[in-house]
Amino acid sequence: MRWLVTGAGGMLGRDVVEELTGRGEEVVGLDRAALDITRSEELDRALAEHRPDIVVNCAAYTAVDDAETDEERALLINGEGPRLLARACATRGARLVHVSTDYVFPGDARSTPYPEDHPTAPRTAYGRTKLAGERAVLEELPGASAVVRTAWLYGVHGRNFVRTMIDLEARRDTLDVVDDQRGQPTWSTDVAVRIADLGPLLGRAEGAHGVFHATSSGEATWCELAKEVFRGIGADPDRVHPTTSEAFPRPAPRPAYSALGHDRWKEIGLEPLRDWRPALHEALSRIRKEIHQESR
């Protein structure tokens, strides 16, 4: 099968390309400079040239706080872009995996993860634009598309919370980290693996379309995640101190609880992602190696 990955310069996009390449798949990764998904002529040209069977859309406007004052542009990239991409896929007979977010939910659940079919109610501009993209993909390409929601992503490439904690551990005696937001720390490599598993089933296996949640099993607060990072790199986790969201005010409200349920994977014969702790400890060695190479 031939794959095309948009947003291939980002953390998840790079991991998807690497995972597919490692499986021996024929894959083309296009970053933002190579393909602007908001321009239909560029999409038509890319799909005509590369003739993909499966497209994975990792292109997105991800600046959550900036979107509060830049919603029009965020909507263009997160809403209209996926619609144009889905239309191009429909014209070419390609299937589409579209990456979305937990921000489509209100984040006010208490202890029960949001199932895939839970009513959406975003509280931020970013969440509204991502929900628009979800709806556009499912409307334009029913039966041949999947929306894969993820959250709390970290990885080897790019800026993310885990890399920031590794950096700050070396520069500060103690850290104050928010302890009243709970979610599922998720290694982007694990999400890439599941996307690669899903693609060949999409539109062919029974039920292999619609919405899926690709977050790690288990839950943690940001503070608990930071402590585990310290523990994993041989530092004292007690140097991480809990604090509240009020100590770090942000333009866009962060969900207090955003864990996602994973029931739909088993419907198509796939397992949910593993627990976040072993994934983190496996990721840490690769992240630290990458940081070392970047510093040389």
Q: Can you walk me through this structure?
A:
It is globular, with a radius of gyration of 19 Å. It has helices at residues 11-22, 40-50, 71-92, 125-140, 161-171, 188-201, 222-232, 263-267, 276-295, and strands spanning 2-6, 26-30, 54-57, 95-101, 145-150, 153-154, 175-178, 182-183, 186-187, 210-213, 220-221, 240-243. With 296 residues, it is an alpha/beta fold. The strands form 4 sheets. Strands 2-1-3-4-5-10 form a 6-stranded parallel sheet, sandwiched between helices. The longest helix has 22 residues, at 71-92.
Oligomerization category of the chains in this entry: single chain
Low-confidence stretches: none
Number of domain units: 1
Strand order of the main beta sheet, please? 2-1-3-4-5-10
Can you tell me the CATH topology?
A: Rossmann fold
The CATH superfamily label reads NAD(P)-binding Rossmann-like Domain
The SS-based structural class is alpha/beta
Largest sheet: 6 strands, parallel
Going by CATH, the architecture would be: 3-Layer(aba) Sandwich
- Globular, elongated, flat, extended or rod-shaped: what is the shape? globular
Average per-residue pLDDT, rounded, comes to 97
Strand content: 15-25%
